[in-house]
């Protein structure tokens, strides 16, 4: 059963009780991410995510680590383009301790100057690590070019210049401005009692200032871009993307099924054509990146330079098929059942349920019943997929990013169409 309460200062608390579970997953979510940063301070949200684990007025960083380890729990965080999450998973009997620990780092981190400098070096190494990992770097480059000139295109990590330039005062000012109660959501799933958790949070989180931290975002403009990035690599890494759907798009279920058929599994068209039939790539897949007001459908693969043109031709052909051919009934049904099965299996994890509560609140303002989601998948038809494909798979919004030893490309801009 899902319950929701709004605390006196505006923080929303949402729980889903799973009485047979022995654990609870709890997260403090802030609906502000890298798209809400200024360009000169890009990376500050992710930097703060690191710094909150470096010590509070009551606990050192070692105390924080020892405390969660002593109960066999998990404590971690992550940053995205539209939110940050600090979360813990513990046995249900240790939930009060987890709440005390999470709220302590959330509210009372000291931002010690020495710790900031040490963690700055860690974040700079994280940026360097991505630079040395081309199958990660290509996706960051793709989004920078796909959303060029818009905050969605800024790196979640920031870059060496922006991270190096973040002062202690600027970090603290950002947190004070953006971590406001109306943008904070606490979600918990597992063997949790809503009323007890709400009472705890009312006590621990009363210090969060009311109001919103972020200003209204403007939607991005889709444009066509071809970017060839030279780097001394054995493979050429390819990201090809087109317009996708925003989180609340009425045809999002069509998009999910289209993505599953295109490159969402080993039975997908891209995996079968690129890897199984042609042997061109080890890794090939597609994904949907959806945000509050925009989205992208992205295809990725890495191949040897001599095979990159053939790889690109297959990618373009398989994407274009959705515009030109109805999806066969058997492929549609297989993809539908795949996604429904994946969703049901994910609900066996309290972590996934906790995340689902938060994302539904951020993007829809309410829990989405499982029955409604299943009905959404069941409504998808071959005709509705083709209609959506012709709406979003627009060559004027196509972005291609290639990374590797490209030299003189064996194709022209006019060749890149779906």
From TrEMBL:
Residue spans crossing the bilayer: none
One Pfam family, short name: Peptidase_M16_C
Superkingdom per UniProt: Bacteria
Peptidase M16 N-terminal domain sequence ranges: 12-159
Residues covered by the Peptidase M16 C-terminal domain: 166-339
Family: Belongs to the peptidase M16 family.
UniProt-recorded name of the protein: Insulinase family protein
Protein's organism: Geomonas diazotrophica
């Amino acid at each position: 059963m899902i319950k929701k309460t709004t605390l006196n200062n505006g923080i929303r608390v949402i729980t889903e009780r799973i009485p047979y579970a022995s654990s609870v997953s709890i997260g403090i979510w802030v609906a502000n991410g890298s798209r809400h940063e200024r360009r000169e301070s890009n990376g500050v949200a992710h930097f703060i995510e690191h710094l909150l684990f470096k010590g509070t007025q009551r606990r050192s960083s070692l105390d924080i680590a020892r405390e969660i380890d002593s109960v066999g729990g998990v404590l971690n965080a992550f940053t995205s383009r539209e939110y940050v999450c600090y979360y813990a998973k513990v046995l249900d009997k240790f939930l009060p301790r987890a709440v005390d620990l999470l709220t302590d780092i959330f509210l009372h981190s000291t931002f010690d100057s020495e710790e900031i400098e040490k963690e700055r070096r860690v974040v700079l190494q994280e940026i360097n690590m991505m630079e040395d990992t081309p199958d990660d770097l290509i996706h960051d480059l793709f989004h920078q070019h796909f959303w060029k000139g818009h905050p969605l295109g800024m790196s979640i990590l920031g870059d060496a210049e922006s991270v190096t330039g973040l002062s202690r005062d600027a970090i603290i000012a950002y947190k004070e401005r953006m971590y406001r109660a109306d943008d904070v959501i606490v979600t918990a799933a597992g063997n949790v009692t809503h009323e007890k958790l709400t009472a705890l949070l009312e006590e621990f989180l009363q210090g969060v200032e009311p109001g919103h931290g972020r200003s209204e975002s403007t939607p991005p403009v889709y444009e066509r871009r071809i970017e060839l990035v030279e780097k001394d690599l054995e493979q050429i890494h390819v990201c090809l993307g087109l317009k996708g759907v925003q989180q609340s798009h009425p045809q999002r279920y069509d998009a999910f099924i289209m993505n599953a058929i295109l490159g969402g599994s080993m039975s997908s068209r891209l995996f079968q054509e690129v890897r199984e039939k042609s042997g061109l790539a080890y890794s090939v897949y597609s994904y949907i990146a959806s945000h509050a007001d925009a989205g992208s459908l992205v295809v990725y693969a890495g191949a040897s330079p001599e095979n990159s043109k053939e790889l690109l031709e297959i990618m373009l052909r398989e994407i274009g098929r959705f515009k030109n051919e109805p999806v066969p009934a058997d492929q549609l049904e297989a993809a539908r059942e795949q996604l429904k099965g994946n969703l049901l299996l994910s609900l066996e994890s309290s972590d996934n349920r906790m995340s689902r509560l938060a994302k539904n609140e951020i993007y829809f303002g309410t829990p989405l019943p499982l029955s409604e989601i299943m009905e959404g998948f069941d409504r998808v038809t071959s005709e509705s997929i083709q209609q959506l494909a012709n709406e979003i798979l627009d060559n004027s919004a196509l972005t291609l990013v290639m990374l590797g030893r490209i030299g003189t490309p064996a194709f022209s801009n006019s060749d890149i169409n779906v």
